[in-house]
Design a protein that fits this description.
This protein is about 40% helix and about 15% strand. The radius of gyration is 19 Å and the shape is globular. α8 links the parallel β8 and β9. The strands form two sheets. It has a six-stranded mixed beta sheet, with helices on both faces. Strands 5-4-3-6 form a four-stranded parallel beta sheet, sandwiched between helices. The termini are far apart.
């Protein structure tokens, strides 16, 4: 494996983020729970994408780019953090944003992440119904280049082998923290979407020789599809690090049983998890990602899949600004 610290990175987040116990939630659900607070990464209200953007923005800088372009839903946490990173690092930001069917609309178009995108100065390009956001982004890239700009395209969620490096770094951070705090972690659980967080975390654990299992609670796909997505990116990330992609075999575990009707559409269990964490721990989850991830964790504690003798670490990937877009449901 090459010297990881030699890979270009722009330090734009706060870290290391806290790793702390959740005693009152543990008591409520019957498992011993800890939380890794990547909602506290600092940039633009925080979240997991900040770690990915440290590597992606460095790559954009090294290619001589002056504009960051990315794609997401209208309430994308990734788009919001990309806009904040662009503002901090002196890039123009162009966001290609798609509406999401089935989401509450009273505040969806004017509040939450979308409000912050505008505050950070991003230019927003709505995708009209029937269009493909990736195609729209490609066309935008061509127009920007023709106008003399130097755009850099960041994929959905920042989830490629470059963005995943942020969670390779996070894995090392977690291992250092649990050693210092003398915690035996038996399982890591998090919300899994575009796959970069889970793939990077697994690559970091593999590189360190750590065998802690990682469970991704899928927020938009069935189990098989989510595992395939993570597997493919994990293999690419291992290759990028100079490691054997066969080391990914047997490491990817996802559960597609908690996302409900689709991406961004809440479930009763999601709303219960959001309210429970707020009321017993003072921790804000979101209705799209972390709420669904925590709903899965709580269900596995209640059903006995996780036992009272296990130490479970929940990776909080952020997203709390999205709460304001879902006010009518909360």
């Amino acid at each position: 494996m090459p010297d990881f610290d030699s890979i270009p990175r722009m330090t734009i987040g706060h870290g290391p983020t806290p790793l702390e116990a959740m005693p009152r939630l543990s008591q409520a659900v019957g498992c011993n729970l800890y939380i890794k607070r990547d909602d506290c990464t600092g940039l633009g209200a925080g979240g997991n994408k900040t770690r990915k953007l440290e590597y992606l923005v460095a790559a954009a800088r090294d290619e001589g780019a002056d504009t960051l372009v990315t794609i997401g839903g209208l309430q994308s946490n990734h788009a919001r953090q990309t806009a904040a990173a662009a503002a901090k690092c002196g890039f123009v930001c162009e966001l290609v944003l798609e509406d999401v069917a089935g989401t509450p609309k009273q505040d969806y178009y004017n509040n939450g992440n979308l409000l912050l995108d505008r505050l950070f100065g991003a230019n927003i390009h709505p995708v009209v119904e029937g269009e493909d956001g990736v195609v729209v982004a490609d066309q935008l890239m061509a127009r920007l280049a023709e106008a003399g700009r130097k755009p850099y395209l960041i994929p959905v969620g920042g989830s490629n082998e470059v963005g995943s490096l942020g969670y390779v770094r996070c894995a090392h951070e977690i291992l250092a923290q649990i050693t210092t705090q003398n915690i035996q972690v038996d399982q890591i659980v998090h919300a899994s979407g575009s796959a970069g967080t889970q793939a990077g975390l697994l690559a970091g654990l593999i590189a360190a020789g750590a065998d802690i299992p990682v469970l991704g609670i899928a927020v938009s796909r069935d189990t098989e599809a989510q595992q395939a997505l993570v597997q493919a990116l994990l293999e690419k990330t291992l290759q990028y690090l100079g490691l054997d992609p066969a080391l990914a075999t047997g490491r990817v575990v996802a559960d597609g049983g908690y996302f409900g009707e689709g991406y961004g559409i809440t479930t009763p269990a999601t709303l219960e998890a959001v309210k429970m964490c707020a009321r017993v721990e003072g921790i804000l989850l979101d209705p799209v990602y972390t709420g669904k991830g925590m709903a899965g964790l709580i269900d596995k504690c209640r059903s006995g899949v996780f036992s009272s003798g296990q130490n479970i670490l929940f990776l909080h990937t952020g997203g709390s600004p999205g709460l304001f877009a879902y006010r009518e449901l909360l």
